Amino acid sequence: MAVVKLSSGYNIGVEKGCCTLVAPAPAPASHMAPVRQDPKLPELSIISTGGTIASRIDYRTGAVTSQFDADDILTAIPALAEIGRYRTKVLYTILSENMTPAIWQELARAIHDEIKHGVTGVIVTHGTDTMAYSAAAVSFMLDTPVPVVFVGSQRSADRPSSDNAMNGVCAALAAESSLGEVAIVMHGTTNDDYCAIHRGTRVRKMHTSRRDAFQSIGIPPVGTVDYASRTVTLSDDAVKRGTHKLALHDKLEPHCGLIQFYPGMAPELLVAYEGYKGLVLSGTGLGHVSTALIPGIKNLIAGGTQVVMTSQCMNGRVCDRVYDTGRDLLNAGVIEGGDMLPEVALVKQMWVLGNEKDPAKAAAMMAADLKGENMRRSGHGL
Amino acid sequence: MDCNQSGHTVLSVVDGKIVLPKNAYNELGLTAGIEIHQQLDTKEKLFCHCPTTLMDNAEHTGEFSRYLRATESEMGEIDRAAQEEMKRIRKFRYYTYRTTCLVENDEEPPAPFNEEALAIGLTLAKTFGMTPIPQVHTMRKLVIDGSNTSGFQRTALVAINGALPNGGSIETICIEEEAAQRVKDEIFSLDRLGIPLVEITTSPCMHTPEEVQQVAEYIGMVLRSTGKVKRGLGTIRQDVNISIKNGARVEIKGVQELDLIAEVVRREVQRQQTLLSIREELVKRNASVGTEQIDVTDLFKGTGSAILKKAKKISALVLPGFAGFVGCELQPGRRLGSEMSDYAKKCGVGGIFHTDELPAYGVTAEEVAELRKVVRAGEQDAVILVSGASAKQADCAWHQVADRAKVALSEKPVPEETRKMLEEGSTAYMRPLPGAERMYPETDVLPVRIDEARWNAVTVPELLTVTAERYAKDLGLDPAVAKQMAFSEERPLFEQAVAKGIKPTLASRTLLATLKELRRDGVEAGKIPDDAIIAVLEAVEKGSAAKEAVPELLTAIAKGSTVKDAMATLAPTVSRDELEAVIKKIVTDRAEFVTQKQKGALGPLMGVVMQEVRGSVDGKVVSELLRKEIEIVLAGKK
After folding, report:
1. Active site positions of A, annotated
2. Which of A151, A363, B128, B312 has the least CB density, counted as fewest CB within 10 Å?
3. Which CATH class is domain B284-433?
4. pLDDT tens sequence across B276-291
5. Are strands A256-260 and A278-283 parallel, antiparallel or unpaired?
6. Is the CB of A263 inside 8 Å of chain B's CB atoms?
7. Geometric angle at alpha carbon B115, from B114 and B118, rounded to 5°
């Protein structure tokens, strides 16, 4: 079918044979005024990787894809110009499901370069699907003295109701604030009222489509940004600007896996991970898999695979000392993943195994808290 | 010129209505088209699985708030209507209900196109003899007045090129989403958002106000013939497009009462004509629009006008040569000043003041004189005052008024506009006519193919006008009743009843009169299930209930009784033998009375029998048996 745009603005699909191409359609041209940068404002860096915040319609497929760069984001969100002046860098224009650990490494290096250049803060625009993975990866690879803020949008930028404008403004404010860690800044509620600042290692996308899909798990958000008043509030637990010196440790071990246990899971599935350097299990409850899987796990560990247990409960801490299965897992050499989120444990494992070759030291690092990912205490939230 | 006398054609007003000489509309070059928006009675909404039920605002379960911003279209343009709405940054609040979901909240991608709604659209298309679109694409039409949480209305062109009885044509049929209902100011209710609407657009094929109304009535009749449209106030809205020679195309939105359409057209013609006349006079006077925004805030420091006193900034605009014309009536209740005021309101101000209506509203004659002196305005000049809560707001409003004044003076003094209807048929400015820029593809909805097989399977309903004739001719209904029945919401139930062998007169009387009377008496007739009505009428046909008992039976059922219980209590079954025995006893007991009254005893004894059998037997049967029995008694006495 050929899609024809009528003068009324409607599109219709007709048989290709009905149409004769007179001339190709004129290229879309933006009529928005170019954004002027105020030299008196602090300098921020925007690194664009794609995603809904920068999405447009692809006339080839008719679907929404990411194809415009950081300059376009500034044009699309003029309010950003009142907050800072910007260096923009297009690293990738991909949907976040196409991210890879290799791209995380490139991203960490690019952020490192920007901070070295002396910017007040870094904003990374990113698709929301795997934003939490990337934020965690950068958290481990980079020690940062300034805010590194990941931001995206849940509703595409081409719609008047998109959350991109508010999220973008809040991200810029957070990037200028006294925060000193890697964070995700997204809508705090379904309202256009405030954004939450989530620690990069404790955040998860918990809804497929809502604006407030991102939630801090196990801790409250480390801060909020009020949209109307343009004010940033940080909690006492937030890592403050200047706490850490800039450093980059960008090695990752890509041969790590994450599997979710389910009742009746076939032990043979574990065989696929033979030769892997690491494997994170997302177990049930306090951190369990069925007894039938234990020999296979033992086998993996004997073969040099580091196996870490986390819980598919998401909330709470793993404890393999309560029930028999848990004790069997510990005896098999499984490392308890504390209260780490399963995917954060995976990213951490890639980083730990990429940087530490000694299995005992690597195991100790997995059990330790490096970037707020594995808390010593479990808050009761009351 | 007396501003109320048109220079083109003499307008006269009779009984508050504008009357023009015959053929005047032809001479004026009146061209009109209509867009009819009708809610469809589907089970689910157009792009989600919520019911199409309207709720009471008090039932809302929660609310949320959002901002909307104009975005560029696929061609890189911002729609002018959208830009107009952007003059103010507005925060909208939305009410949610147990009947709404994340799709209405703009928090979930739309579900696939509602097939039931599309089918109704295709039925209408075939009825109007239209050509279906081979592949239907859903579009997003930018609407950032808050009535759509997404900032756009989803709409799809379904068919083109239909025919109308007046020789005109239907250009398009679109299926689109209903907008959210405004509760007040910037609060909207989400129950209505997403109900499927059919939009039927005619060509500009009408040339008199009455013709516009007739075409609207015809299309309304066809819509109702499908039996799949919602009924009641607000479920159908007409937009009217009107232009006259040298005027401009103006779209008037939201005419809900059919009877007002002709009047709306008349008043718009009057408005455009008066604007044309004013322009001629202004040119004669060598009028112009001041270029300087004069700050007169200090002038009104001690004013008695509450509005001006509150203002942070008051700006004046001098309109040389405009005196008398700003206050000129364009149509009942509307002046050129009202038009300027509407433009200014887009900046958030409450309105404007102008010297044609001052002194008034707390502004004294001395203040007006002082104002004229300060801004150096002569007697022939008008002065406009705009007051803002901020300098920015006043500035915005000043420019809006100046722009509107320039239009009044320009070669095209009637601006192309979207206007909204006010009470009684006058209109107010809403926004510029939207352009094609406001349309871009809804990428979350897949296109729908309408192939030959699908199109061929579409059936055309019987038009209600034909139905009415059939009811009169075939079913023997009185023509007036037949028409009423055909156009009634109870038509499907009527058809069902007749198909079950119930007499058309009994069915129509029950559905049109009895139910109405019960409602009037406070009975919740809506609670009576259709099959209960049928069961009661069947009982009457079978003779196991009297037709006189129908109101009582239906009342009991409305109050929660089952059909069986109601019949047992109010119309216990009486066999023919039992009935004959009852009648025989009554007549024998009252033999003396019968002898005395002769045949005149029938009436009084009817009441006695009916009371005894408690509505379970048809009056006609009773009367027949009673008459026989009386005759026997009278014969015996002879």
Report:
1. 52, 128-129, 205
2. B312
3. alpha beta
4. 999 999 999 999 999 9
5. parallel
6. no
7. 95
